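From the pipeline queue, job 12 of 40. The input is one protein chain; the requested action is below.

Action: predict structure.
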Amino acid sequence: MAQTSESRPTVSVVIPAWSAERHLPACLAGLARQVDPPSFEILVVDDASPDRTAEVAAGATVIRHEHNRGAAAARNTGARAARGEVLLFVDSDVVPAPGLLAGVAAIFENPDIAAATGRYTAEPANPGRFARYKARWTWHCWEQTGARTGRSSHLQGALAAIRADAFARVGGFDERYAGGNVEDYELSARLRAEGVAIVFDDRLGGAHHFPGFRTVARNYWDRTRMWMRLAPEQKAFSSGQANPRSAAAAVAALGGAATHAGSLLFPPLIVPALACDAAFLASTGGFLRYVAREDGLRFAAYAAGCHYALSAVVGAAALSTPLGRGTRRGTP
């Protein structure tokens, strides 16, 4: 890999990794295939993985945590060891686009830019209908937000770049957030408070390996509960996936699921159930039309079913927010 050894690199690629033996090699191979990259280094932070994550990190500097501390802590560890002027955070399950590093260097040639984020490609890195649905949904969300304005209210931790001095100035990621849920949104709120604008640029791109439905549903549940907890702290954001239209879809899907179930015992409930279904389709019509154009009506119907179920999970998670403590730890 084209890494620098003596001089200070332009970009430090920080990859938090836990049980990443399966996907990390593809991520590193993507970095090895970069077109006209600037000088860079790669730091893989093995967050006490039980598998061969450290062994498959060929060509990278590996830093290992003795105990699992979460994605926020892993990113901070990598940032502290980094020598680059710009920190590029890439998750281990992302396959970087060939122009990622050159794009980052070009973006930060502008001295007024301190932070930038990108998006996953519309094609997933792994096969399967559900992975394709998730890739389409994520891409569409960014198309409606950052791609239109060139700005974002948040850094997407899996594909984000920030000047090292700006990252240090705000104190890095909050390590009290367990797992990989909302620590990137919380950091973004502090950046905005410091007057740092976050640029959206498609040159920060890569294909993502998406997990299955159960894992995504669990992630949505945890993330929604933490999003709801951030709201009273005035750390709001809009990512395309979290905005009034998505909230309407969640309410409609949860209401529809509940009233459809109730109609089995009390048939007149089918009327409000169908009304909820209509409201859900109205709130997600743009996405479903996009999928139908790209993949046909049959896949659009499948995507609608997946989206309905996940939206209902989001709605239920929002209602459950007062219960339990969510996924935020105490003082690190």
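Job complete. The domain at 11-210 is CATH 3.90.550.10 (Spore Coat Polysaccharide Biosynthesis Protein SpsA; Chain A).
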